[in-house]
């Protein structure tokens, strides 16, 4: 993540930049649509809140971050492998 930028409309809102692999972004986009969120940003805010409010699930987020770094180095595991490992919804 990079520096935050204050949103010009609301001093309590900051904008952040996030770099992720296109393949992972495709999974994120598919997920927020399937789960009925109105936007990618809404889904990401929900996921971050959930991670902060339920730290026992932090292992999933840590594994996702590691996987993201591995994808950048062409060493990642597939989304199917992640789903199997964590028992999440299938496509």
From TrEMBL:
Disordered: annotated segments: 72-91
Q: Which GO terms describe its biological process?
A: regulation of DNA-templated transcription
Under InterPro entries, the record lists: Arc_rbn_hlx_hlx (IPR013321), Ribbon_hlx_hlx (IPR010985)
Chain intervals with Basic and acidic residues compositional bias: 80-91
Q: What is this protein called?
A: Ribbon-helix-helix protein, CopG family
SUPFAM superfamilies associated with the record: Ribbon-helix-helix
